[in-house]
């Protein structure tokens, strides 16, 4: 059988791609990739922000659940009198030693100081700071009506001998309880600022379940919670104490120390709305009076704030933007990006506004700032502060 022979012959003109053609194709592919990668980056950023915002919504719901259960919003621990009244209200049978213990954990003497149980001490509003108040309040309390803090499932557990409490209100003898009763929300343990004890050693003041957050306060039994690893934690401000102050330049706020900030700290204060209150007949006269010049956002409930994807709130909490966050008059952002600077000599709300700050841009105060406040989140706007600007 004869096989038919093919008559096909490659054309003498057929050739591969020239170098120029290859370069054109590579250029086109590169252009497509250049267009796609930023779009993918924006999508990933949006997804991460949406996830963080969802968790913020969950936390805010936990606070509302707390109010439904107890008939009151939790305090932010800036004012001891309010803290004490709150717990006497929601736990009417609470033992005196429980309140004494909480006070000693929040006073200005180290918990393991030998004079702790005998010294006259002062309440320290930063001992349980605005971030620690979130976990303390939402993590669950004991069902024991007399011992909601130290009873079974409460936030505190007495350590065993030989380092057990020498008295029911001895703060050196307690540790944080990571298995609390009926929490308002479930915290992800990996994002609590909690250092667990070494089981190979005896439990002690230095080897116990305790917090390792880097605020100005010493190590204690009050952990914080963050939305992203190594970010500043979520903070809570109670409307009743937004403008709390000690009569000097120390006003309610949150600060932590960090080497990643231009000023050496990262901090935040409650946020003002754009609603002005009536001006005084003369000057405000005091910084506390000046704090009433504008209405805070969420004036009847609470503010819950968290840093955005950069993990920072901002470098500026007072007027000089220096390395001491509260040595001069405090400053506050407004929801529209303006900055309120408390001034006792001012006589109108408008006179309290910084003329050099708008849209959260503080480079007039800290000239190399990346303006981290812009991507912060809260419970009273849909996304980030920057995204809601017109």
Description:
With 390 residues, the chain is of the alpha+beta class. The chain has two domains: 154 residues, no CATH class; 160 residues, no CATH class. 22% of the residues lie in helices and 11% in strands. It has five helices and 13 strands. The strands form six sheets. Strands 5-10-13 form a three-stranded antiparallel sheet. Strand 6 and strand 7 form a beta hairpin. The longest helix is centred in the first third of the chain and has 52 residues.
> Helical percent range?
10-25%
**Total individual domains:** 2
Summarize the biggest pleated sheet: 3 strands, antiparallel
If helices are DSSP runs of H or I spanning 4 or more residues, what is the number of helices?
A: 5
Query: What's the rounded overall pLDDT mean?
Result: 90
Give the C-alpha Rg: 28 Å
Pfam families: N_methyl
Protein name: Type II secretion system protein
Keywords: Membrane, Methylation, Transmembrane, Transmembrane helix
GO biological process, one term: protein secretion by the type II secretion system
């Amino acid at each position: 059988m004869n096989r038919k022979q093919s008559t096909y012959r490659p054309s003498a003109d057929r050739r591969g791609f020239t170098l120029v053609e290859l370069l054109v194709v590579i250029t086109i592919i590169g252009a497509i990739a250049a267009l796609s990668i930023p779009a993918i980056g924006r999508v990933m950023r949006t997804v991460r922000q949406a996830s963080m915002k969802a968790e913020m919504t969950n936390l805010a719901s936990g606070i509302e659940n707390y109010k439904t259960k107890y008939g009151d919003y939790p305090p932010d621990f800036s004012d001891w009198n309010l803290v004490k009244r709150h717990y006497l209200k929601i736990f009417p049978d609470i033992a005196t030693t429980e309140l004494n213990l909480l006070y000693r954990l929040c006073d200005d003497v180290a918990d393991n100081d030998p004079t702790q149980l005998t010294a006259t001490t002062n309440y320290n509003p930063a001992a349980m700071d605005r971030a620690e108040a979130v976990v303390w309040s939402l993590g669950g309390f004991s069902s024991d009506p007399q011992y909601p803090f130290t009873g079974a499932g409460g936030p505190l557990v007495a350590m065993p001998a030989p380092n057990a409490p020498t008295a029911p209100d001895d703060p050196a003898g307690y540790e944080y309880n990571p298995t609390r009763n009926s929490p308002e929300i479930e915290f992800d343990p990996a994002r609590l600022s909690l250092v667990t004890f070494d089981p190979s050693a005896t439990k002690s003041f230095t080897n116990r379940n305790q917090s390792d957050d880097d605020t100005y306060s010493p190590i204690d039994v009050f952990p914080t919670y963050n939305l992203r690893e190594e970010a500043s934690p979520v903070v809570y401000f109670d409307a009743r104490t937004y403008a709390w102050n000690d009569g000097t330049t120390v006003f309610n706020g949150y600060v932590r120390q960090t080497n990643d900030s231009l000023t050496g700290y990262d901090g935040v204060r409650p946020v003002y709305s754009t609603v002005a209150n009536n001006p005084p007949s003369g000057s405000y006269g005091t910084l506390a009076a000046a704090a009433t010049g504008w209405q805070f956002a969420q004036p009847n409930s609470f503010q819950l704030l968290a840093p955005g994807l950069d993990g920072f709130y901002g470098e500026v909490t007072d007027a000089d933007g220096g390395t001491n966050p509260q040595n001069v008059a405090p400053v506050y952002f407004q929801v529209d990006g303006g900055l309120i600077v408390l001034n006792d000599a001012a006589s109108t709300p408008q006179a309290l506004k910084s003329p050099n700050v708008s849209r959260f841009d503080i480079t007039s105060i800290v000239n190399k700032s990346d303006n981290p406040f812009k991507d912060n989140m809260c419970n009273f706007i849909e996304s980030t502060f920057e995204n809601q600007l017109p």
